[in-house]
């Protein structure tokens, strides 16, 4: 039997589903053509595969296939959306609104734009992690060109009210971008009903391969202009040059298709697993369950633990479970999670936090092992601190 820890870090990444891998494999070897090659069958079959994924993604979010621009992932999609709008609408205005709990792939492009003279408003969140729509209302200015609010948070799983935000932006003729890296395949997304103009997607959080993502770019009512951030052969209607990575694109399509087909039953199953974990951890005193109780991703449970040292906690959990505090993308730094401090937690409490990302391949038995070990670890750490 494998002695590797139980994987519960599905917000960082997920394994490629076997069905996804099987769909991808022929595109590395026999069907290796360049989808831009228009003069032979190698190109045509690659192009047909790319087209199919465009259609799957478009259907998934109620867009059209022409509105899908492939990128290397959500980081690139966010950069293209934010910098692309800032540059294209420079004459109209230079003010952008985003949120304190966004992923660094949104916050950092905004910080970069600030160094170029753009004005950035970073909205706070409420204790439950949701933005306050009256704060958004107050933040709008005549020169606001873009609002960027994520669909689902990668640390605390909170789902922001996209339709309400979309409505407010559309009323004011402001472009609305959402980072949906954690949302695609997991919650219903509809760019028409939610009045979304730009949406960042990625494959590797839904059992697809790493290194592939997309940006939805609205073409009608209104048509969104984007300044390309990578120039070259004019691929993706000039918005993102570079030979399309056909095997990854095929995997992205298959992964999305599976996630959509299984969404309802899988969310029920994940909710049960989360409740199972939560109710066992609730036996302990001094546990904060972070994020809104119902406006959340089914597979996310994020706790802050009073009376323990964060580093010792993670070290104690490590042999049994693969979890993280904060997000994988910022865990190279030693700062506490900016998401948890935005909820109002002290630095010490934010450090003593654990993100459980439950996914497709986790079982109730694994959850019980994890709960048992987490409880024992926390109790033992608390005992040690009271002895000192
Ligand atoms: C993972 C993640 C990203 C980065 O996506 P990549 O495809 O790895 O670049 C961006 N935003 C959120 C919310 C994420 O969870």
UniProtKB/TrEMBL annotation:
Its EC number is 2.8.1.7. This is cysteine desulfurase. Residues 6-369 form the Aminotransferase class V domain. The lineage of its organism: Bacteria, Bacillati, Cyanobacteriota, Cyanophyceae, Nostocales. Gene3D superfamilies: Aspartate Aminotransferase, domain 1, Type I PLP-dependent aspartate aminotransferase-like (Major domain). Belongs to the class-V pyridoxal-phosphate-dependent aminotransferase family. NifS/IscS subfamily. Transmembrane segments: none annotated. InterPro entries: Aminotrans_V_dom, Aminotrans_V_PyrdxlP_BS, Cysteine_dSase, PyrdxlP-dep_Trfase, PyrdxlP-dep_Trfase_major, PyrdxlP-dep_Trfase_small. Keywords: 2Fe-2S, Coiled coil, Iron, Iron-sulfur, Metal-binding, Pyridoxal phosphate, Transferase. Residues 260-287 form a coiled coil. The keyword Ligase does not apply.
């Amino acid at each position: 039997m494998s002695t590797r820890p139980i994987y519960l870090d599905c917000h960082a990444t997920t394994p490629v589903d076997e069905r996804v891998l099987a769909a991808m494999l022929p595109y590395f070897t026999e069907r290796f053509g360049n989808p831009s090659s228009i003069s032979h069958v190698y190109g045509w079959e690659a192009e047909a595969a790319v087209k199919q994924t465009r259609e799957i993604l478009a259907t998934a979010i109620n867009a059209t296939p022409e509105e899908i621009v492939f990128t290397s992932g959500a980081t690139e999609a966010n950069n293209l959306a934010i910098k692309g709008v800032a540059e294209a609408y420079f004459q109209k205005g230079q003010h952008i609104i985003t949120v304190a709990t966004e992923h660094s792939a949104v916050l950092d492009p905004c910080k970069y734009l600030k160094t170029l003279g753009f004005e950035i408003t970073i909205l706070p969140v409420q204790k439950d992690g949701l933005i306050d729509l009256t704060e958004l209302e107050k933040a709008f200015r005549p020169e606001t060109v873009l609002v960027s609010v994520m669909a689902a948070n990668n640390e605390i799983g909170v789902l922001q009210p996209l339709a309400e935000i979309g409505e407010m932006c559309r009323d004011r003729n402001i472009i609305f971008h959402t980072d949906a890296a954690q949302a695609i395949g997991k919650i219903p997304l509809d760019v028409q009903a939610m009045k979304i103009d730009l949406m960042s997607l990625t494959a590797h959080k839904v059992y697809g391969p790493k290194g592939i993502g997309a940006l939805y770019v609205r073409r009608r009512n209104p048509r969104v202009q984007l300044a390309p951030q990578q120039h070259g052969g004019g691929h993706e209607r000039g918005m993102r040059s570079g030979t399309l990575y056909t095997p990854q694109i095929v995997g992205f399509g298959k992964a999305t298709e599976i996630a959509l087909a299984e969404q309802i039953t899988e969310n029920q199953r994940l909710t049960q697993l989360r409740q199972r974990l939560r109710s066992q951890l609730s036996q302990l005193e001094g546990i904060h369950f972070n994020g809104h109780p119902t406006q959340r991703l089914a597979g996310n449970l994020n706790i802050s633990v009073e009376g323990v040292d964060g580093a010792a906690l993670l070290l104690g959990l490590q042999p049994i479970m693969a979890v993280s505090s904060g997000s994988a993308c910022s865990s190279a730094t030693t700062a506490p999670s900016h998401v948890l401090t935005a909820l109002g937690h002290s630095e010490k409490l934010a450090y003593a936090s654990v993100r459980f990302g439950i996914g497709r391949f986790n079982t109730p038995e694994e959850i019980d092992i994890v709960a048992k070990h987490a409880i024992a670890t926390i109790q033992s750490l608390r005992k040690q601190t009271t002895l000192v």
